[in-house]
Each structure stands twice: as structure tokens, then as C-alpha cells.
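Objective 1.3, modelling of assemblies. Example input:
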Amino acid sequence: MLWEVDVHLRDAAGDHAARALVAGAAELGLAGCTRAKVATGWLIEGDLSRADVERLAAAVLTDPVTEISVVAEAGDAALLAPATTSAKQGDAASLPTVLHVLPRAGVTDPAAETAQEACGLLGLRPTAVRSVRKYWLPALDKDQTDRLAWKLLASEAIHDVVIGPLPLRTLAGGRPWTFAQETVRLAGLDDAALDRLSRDRCLALSATELHAVRDHFQSLGREPLEIELETIAQTWSEHCCHKTLGSPIDHVGPAGAVRYDNLLKETVFAATREVRAQLGARDWCVSVFRDNSGVVRFDGDHDICVKVETHNHPSAIEPYGGAATGLGGVIRDVLGTGLGAKPIANLDVFCVGRPDTPVADLPPGVIHPRRLLAGVVAGVRDYGNRMGIPTIAGAVAFDPGYIGNPLVFCGTVGIMPRNSAEASVQAGDLVVVAGGRTGRDGIHGATFSSVELSSDSESQSGGSVQIGHAIHEKMLADFVLEASRQRLFHAITDCGAGGLSSAVGEMAATLGAEVDLDCVPLKYDGLSATEAWISEAQERMVLAVAPGDWDKLARVAADEGVEATAIGTFTGQGKLVLRWEGRTAGELDCHFLHEGRPRRRLASRYVPPAVAPMAWTGTTDDSLSACLLDLLGAPDIASKEWIIRQYDHEVQGCSVVKPLLGPGEGPADGTVVRGVLGRDRGIVLGVGLRHRLGTLDPYQMAAGGIVEAIANAVATGADPARIALLDNFCWGDCRREESLGTLVEACRACYDMAIAFAAPFVSGKDSLNNVFAWTDAEGTHHERSIPPTLLATAMGQVEDIHRVVTPDLKHAGNRLAIVGLSRGDLAGSQLELVGRVRGGRVPEVDAAACRQVFESVAAAQRAGLVAACHDCSDGGLAVAVAEMAIAGGSAARIELANVPLHSTGSAANGSAHHSDLTISFTETPGRFVCEVPAAAADQFAAHMNQVPQSDAEHVPWAWIGEVIAGDEMEIVSTTGTIAAVPVASLARAWRGGA
Amino acid sequence: MLSPRALILRAPGTNCDHETAHAFERAGAIARRVHVRALTKKPALADDFQILCIPGGFSYGDDIASGRIFALELKSRLSDALTKFRDRGGLILGICNGFQVLLQTGLLLADPVTGASRASLAHNTSGMFIDRWVQLRAVPGRCVFLQGMDRFELPVAHGEGRFVTRSPEDFAAFDAAGQLVLRYGIDATGSSCNPNGALGDVAGACDETGRILGLMPHPERFIDAVQYPAWNGRIAPAAAGAGLPIFANAVKAVS
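Predicted structure (C-alpha cells):
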């Protein structure tokens, strides 16, 4: 019997979902949709009486104070009426259209799973439960209803939409799979046929790679089985190994020809190795580039780890699910580091199209940037908040280059006891899978993220999109941390891209394993051995458990309500043997699987684009105050409060520098969490993203991003000698020599910066081939690559969180200083973006000068001479001071004439007015504004005037103004006061009120 | 004299248990985090404690409604143990999700005859989760936890915190009985701090005895000055936060 329970709000005034629907419909131009009603429905199948279902409805599904329910057999006409107690007469007549949105069969439905589990508390055992959203709408035509459904209420990747009565009479589906082996013939296929085979099966393997597979199996005297080929495809995917970045590359760039045998090892990794060698006995790295996250020393009894992942392609198709599972995945990376680390902070960075993009400019199949951003924010919110991990850092960048190919970066910091970063599987250990059950979710996610998106992706790759179940992950985390505390496993890793095939494959890389795939717990019947093996169902981890610890581990799992199942053994035979009910389903040689991928020498080339001469446009009001207000409202700079406040950034109680701070609730630079509740040592997070320079100069884009990330951390009080870096490369089509050339330039920058700042990279991840392809109405084929984008993350440390420094201005009468030289280069600046100037050179990083600035500022902070500190990044000096004023709710005056300028720079830039604009808004990296208590001014000056060595010069710095009583920010030039803007106006512009 | 013991009851999805235990310890209690499964197996565990706290989080995901399943579990499996705990004078505190649970179990603001809920916490008017700091006004009356407290600030972080009652008469009755002990106040500019549209600006309520309190704001997130968003350069960093007295009052009352 299939029952339906509909839950309605008693009071329609509280129906915010209906209000949101009406507002969304208006935005879509559906003028007729002025009213709506929304209900939550539950489809419940099983041997249940009406009284059972009514009891269930009353005890579990309905709030007696605010809701009423309707119980009926599925299909009953009573379910079509928009019931309510405060019924406006005539609802049925004025809202005649009923629309159902429900998760497709097989898509994770967390609420339904919870409801089914709760039935047990009433002694009821339904066989299946599914949730459904019901909408009652005014009379709309079919086209309007479809648009409303698919643009506003449902996602093609995961939902079914039914208009009118629900035709479902059963939720049952799937029968147990019958064992079968499929052989894939590779012999005799030419390259074109191999490419086709790879594409049809979504393997993302090149013809060269398939040659190697064919040769390997020929040497064994047979053809590969489907499950073997799939395992190879997952293991060799760009997503699972650094296929491009780890390649040998012949590069020709401005500095001449360079030959790399392994680009990544010779740039990013090499820098870390050299920095560690230089630190010698003081090396504070613990485990880098080996595990699921990078581990460094923290205090006497803890290490900390950090990882940032991308989840771009799934988020492009299903923003909510893509972002949520992206975060879920990186949290498991931290849980799966060493012998398990506790996640204590999250960060999120999104790159999307501009919010004002006209709908007509969107290629077919592309989700509008505004809806996309709302979706990814909601995904992070619902997952991160449920996990109870504070989301404390992040950024959003807006650029037309990200339309169709948004970037979603999710990061997590973890903490673990000392001496638990090393983990190694022992022969004889059980292969244990723990957490959620396996379904068809996300099949081909790893290979999907390695192929380009197209306007059909939404329909082609729906299976690659996963929906998260945060509470299952929270339970899994509680289990892992308890099992870790009791040391009940030898090694652990998360089931991410490639599912069990990657997780078990990696753990068994040298020892080999035997896996009984029929033992993998399934969500529903019907999965084949291959599907169970490569499914990317979320919230699962794989553990290596000594047989003697298995009983204890199983007990911990049961106590936390987590399913843990032994599915095989790590053997020590060097073979990966897959079985189904005792029969061999596939067998792979571990050495071939992990070392057999042919490496192809790639060629890359970088020719810097010609520099257009700099020109002032003169088209818009370019008074200094107009520019300042425009910049504060520019999407990259404007307040992200609407996002930040949706994230729980205070759970765990350790957040001590929050993303919005000061009495005026202004923006932070770095954010800080205590490592351990009640202790004083803190972790500082800073991110840097100079995406606007990506197409102009990839080296400076990367270098500038790294400096920005470090500067954010240092401004907050992080020790510049303890900065760990992470790289996340997101690039366009790297099969082209020119694109690959820009990637090589960015890698060179990473090496140079890490060495210059003695800041090692500890982890990283790349997402290449971010290309969106479509065919327009005229039949012309288009391809759009994202701008080369490196997200740099800096994880710093403060010895005592009571001594951190925040950017909000503190006291009238305090003085303001700028530290670091300013240059006149404005290409790629926010001032260019708001249309005041174009062309010229990009701001270049002088790494040695930046390091001196970092160290001087840090020393002054340590001496207690800095009351507030902010780095100058987007929008330059004037925006930095405006943000400090907004956060502090204080007024300030700055004098541009005092700002130290680079002698060869073009800061003069023509007229006095243009010179003022340049000094105010140039984005030269590596500069700070410091607020200094008046009484400490001489001491601060003495500190800054110290020289590191006898032959060196002191750091460039100057007094440029003071915090003043009053309510305006004043900017003074040689010609007098050229801008006086009320701080309240600055705040309004920054908050989007203009 | 032995330190009082606080049982921090967690369920799948509870996520404020560690900092809540920490807050009780800072207030002088011995705090133990106990999974509801463990308590169900052995309800007598509760006998060793004088304070029971249901902390914040998303118990069972809050996918159906916040606190619903946890409350159902308590009602169906631990009803006797909880009644016994209350009747022998134990203090019960529900924070955020815990407040939602207390209302749904009928331990707080329920119909004395039928046990039916007379109040609930509905979705915020904005329809969105919100994390922000709010001004609060306490009118403690009998409420043990809020003794000596008046105006203070705490953070809220929830999507379902809008206090509603079954009827206007119910609200008036709770109000007249002095049970609506914690209200959202106004900020420096005179704007209301009510973050969710709660009826009567109610942020927290206690039972008739004052020994059971549920509140939406998170006192465990303001134990130290450095947890305040504008502490830097303004408050002595070693000062205590405004949330600590709630725990200290509880510890004092059972010491």
C-alpha cells in the first residue's frame, strides 16, 4: 500500500516558501503567479493501516502547533486540494494547478531516510519513504508551469516534476543484479575507435592510454573486463592523479626554454623540499603532499592539517548538491588524514559570472550566476552547519569568464594528536567500509570532472551529481574520531571521486587486496559489481582494520549508529582481486594500475600579451569620492554579509576573529580559530585570488594571489615564519600549448614565492579542462575557457589569540601608517573594472620587498604597537581605509602626498587628479595600513626604521593620517581635501545600498 | 563538597556538545557527553547527574522539523527517566536545538492535562538560517539559570527559532505566569534584535518551577571576551563572556 501524508502550515502568513516562489516567478516574468501555496508531502509504502499512518503523521511528520496534515492513499483526490485551516474560501478555484517535485528514484533523499528511521520509534516498518514538495499555483499555461518548475523549483539532474495528480502507486524498484562479466574488446581498434569507446563509456582515457591497457592485457593473453577498464579509468583520471601537472613538459617562456620531467615535482614540491631543507631541525612540516591533506606542527601535543578541494563540474549542473558534496568530500579528506583528524574550520571560495549578467547572454543550459551562487551558498550552509564546523573564511569573485563554468572551492582545517599523521596498511588487515550505503549516485564523477562541460551536460551526466546527507557524515565523523582515539584502525581514507575503486585501490597500491563486492551494503537492489565498485555515493570511508580490533571497531560503530562492514582483506599479493558471491569479477595487477599509465611529453609555450598603453577613460564621474563609492559596491569588494550570516561561523566556540567584526561589522582579513577550546594558540586562515590578472599575466596572477593570502594572515597577527600554503589551480583547456604555457608560468610563480617567503606548500589540487562548449542558434560551435585561476590559501599560526590584530579602527587620535611601496600599474585593478581606466601594466610582486614588509609589520604587532591592521588588496589604499572605518564605526583622514611611491613606477600618471586616483586605488601587492596608538608612534617609527643588515635600507613606510573624531572619511591631496564622505555612506555603498 | 555533574545529552547530529561541556566545566561542574543510545540502554546513568543539558545542533538532521525525532525518542524511550530526573530536582537546560527538543517532548510549555505542545519554534520569518549577535533582556522571576541577569548579548544561529504559541490565550497565560523569561532587545540604534519574528520577542522560556529553561541564543559561545565579534582593542581579552553566568547559576543552584 502506498500512502501519502501532506503537511500544511496552519497559518499561510508563515509560508515563506510560497512567498519566495511568488518573488521568483515575478523575476522570471511570470506575472500571473501572484499567489501560491506550498506543502511537504511524504510517500510511505508498506504494510500499514490508515491508523498507523495517521499516528505517524501526528507523532513524526506534523507540528501540532503550526501544522495540519492530510492522510490518504496515493492518488486520492483529497490530496489535490490546497488544505488549510485558515482557508481562504476559493483556494481550490484560484490555485487550480498542483505541481509535485520529488527526487528521482535512486537520488539521496535525506529527509525521507530520516522519516523512515523515525518510524522505528513508533514500531512501524515501512518498506520505502520518499519526500515530495507540493505547490498549488494559479492557472498558468504549460510553458509557464514548466519554466517555473525547472527554473525555480527543480533541478533536472536530481528531480522529477509531475503536474497534476501523482501517478505513482509504488516506490519499489530494482531487483538483485545477476552476476555477469562483460569483456571489452580493444584489440584491432584504431585510435578513432578507441577515442569513441572512451567517450561512449565516459572513461576519459586517451588513445595512447588505451594502447597501454591493450598491451598489458595482451601480455596476459586476454581482453580487459568492463570492471577492470573502469578501475583503470578511475585511477588514471585527471581527478585522481596529476595527469597534466605531473607530466614532462618542454616549455618555452619569456625566460627561455625549460625542460621539466615532472612539472609539479620540480616547482611546487621542489620549493617545499628546499624550504624544509633550509629549516633543518626547525622544520615544522609533518606530512606534505602524501596524504589526503597537508599536516604541520601546531603545539606541543597537536598537529594541524588543511586541504582545499574544487567541485566545479557538479556545481555547474546542480549547484546545491555539488557544493554540499564538495564540502562533504573535503571534510572527509581531513577525517581521512593520518589516523584521523577532527575538522575545526571550513572555508569556501566561489567564482561565478557577474550577478547582473543579462539572461539573454547565457549560453543554452547554463544556470544564471545569481541562482547558481544562491544554490552553492545554500549547499555549503546546509552541509557545513549540520556538520557543526564553522565556515569562517572565503571569498566570491565575479567574472564573465566563469559563466557556464563556475569554480567552487571548499576547504577544511583539522587538528590531530601529535604522532598520528603516519598511517600504514598492514597485510592481513580487513578492508572495512563505513558510513552511508552505496547507490548509483555519482557514477563516473571522477572521469566526468576530467572531461569538458557542454550544454548537454545536465542531461548526459545527471548520474554524476550527488546529493549529500550531512547527518550521516556527522555520525561517521563521530565514529571515526572515537575509533581513532582508541586506535582501532591502521589507515583510513575517504571514498570520494572513483568511489571504492579509488579508495581501496589507493590503500592497496602496494599490498593488493581481495574485495567481495556483494558484501558492500546497498541502498537498493540492482547495482552491478562495477556500479558498487565505482559509485561515488557520499559519506563513506574505508578503513584498514586488524582482525583482532574488528569486534571493538564494530561496537564503536554500533554505538554511534554507523554501519561498518568488512568487505575484504589487504593481502600483500600485489593484486586487486574483485569478487561477487565467491566468483572472480575482475583482477588487476597493482603495479600496472598505479605505475602503468604512459606519460606523454607535452609542449607548452607562453608569449606575454602585448601591453596596451594605459588610458583614463573619462567616461564616468571620476571624482575620488564617486570612484570610492563605486568600488565599495563592486561585486568582488561589496559586503558578503548575506552569505556569511547564513553560515554558522561560531559553532565549536573557537572562532575568535570572525569574518564580520568590529562594532560596524566590517570585513576581516584573516580569520582565526583556537586550535583547542580553552587554549591560547590559534590558526589563521587567509585566501588570495587575483583572477582578474589571469589572462593578462598568469605569473603575476599566481604570485599576487599568494602574497594576498599571506598578507591576510600576517595582517591578523600570524607569524610570517610559520605560513603553510595550498595551491588550487583551475585552468581552461590545457591540451592547447598556449594554455599549458600559462599553467607552467603559474607553477614557476608558486616556486618563486614559496622560496621567497620560506612558506612551504603542504597540499594542493588541480581542476583542469574547465571549458564550456555549446552550439548557438545559428549552428556555430563555441568554446569558452575560464581565466587561469590560482586560489592560494595561507594557514598561519598565532601563539596567543589574545594578541591578534583586527582591521577595525579603534580610537580617534591614533595615527595611520602605510607600510610598503605603491606603484602606478592599474591593469586588472578594480578601478579598471568600474570603467575609470584601462590598459597599462599589471602590478608586479617584489617578493623580497614583500617579505621585509611582512616581517616589519609582524614585529611591530608583536611589540604591541599596532591597534588595527589591514592589507591593501582589491580597491587599494582608499578602499582598505574605508573598510577599516566601516568596521570600527570611526572616521579617518589620509594624506595621499605622504604615500611612498616606487621611483620607476608611473604613479604620477599625468594630471594631479589622475595621480591621486592612482595612489588611492592601485593594488600593488604587499602593503598594509596600520593604526598606531598616538603614544606608541615614536616606538613604531623606530621599529620601522630599523635595518635588517648594515647595507640594507629600512622598510618603506610613512605616516599617512589619523583616526579622527567625527563621521567622515577625508582624503587630502596636495590641492587640499579632495573627498569627504560620511562613513555611513561608505557602509551603505559597501552593503549594496549605493 | 563534590562538584555538580552535568550530563550533556547528544544524538546523531548534535554539534554543540563539546563547547557546552566546556562551558559547564568553566562554571565548576564536571560535564560528561553521553549519547542518547547509551542512556537508552542504561537510563540509570542519569542518576549520577544534577544537571541535564540538551545542546545545539541538528539532531537527526532536522530534516522533518527541528528536534522532532530526538524528542520522539526521548518520549518513547526515556520518558520515565526524564520525569524522575525532573521530579528529584534536577535542572534541565535546552539550548537552540535543545530548546526545540524540550518543547516537543512536552517538558516545557505543554498542556498540563493532555501533555500536548502549546508552543513551538517555527521557521524564521526570513526563511533562512541566520548567525548574528543579539541584545537580550532577562526577566528571571523563578528561573534558576537567569538569576541576577538583566541585559546582555549572545549569538543566535538557527533557521527555526520563531517562537509561536497554539493560541493567543496560551501566550497570555505563559506571560502571566512569568515563564517567558528571555526576550530579544533593541540595539544601539533602537532597532529590534528579534532575528526570527518570534512572538513577543521571546528568546527563551522556563517551566513553572524555573528549573527547566529552553533558549534559542547560545550562551556557551560567549564564555570568554575573545568570542565577541568586537572584542579586539575594546574589551579586556581575559574577561568572562555574558553567557557564563547561565552555567554558573545552574552549578550554584545544585551545589
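Residues 805-994 of chain A form a domain with the Phosphoribosyl-aminoimidazole Synthetase; Chain A, domain 2 fold (CATH 3.90.650.10).
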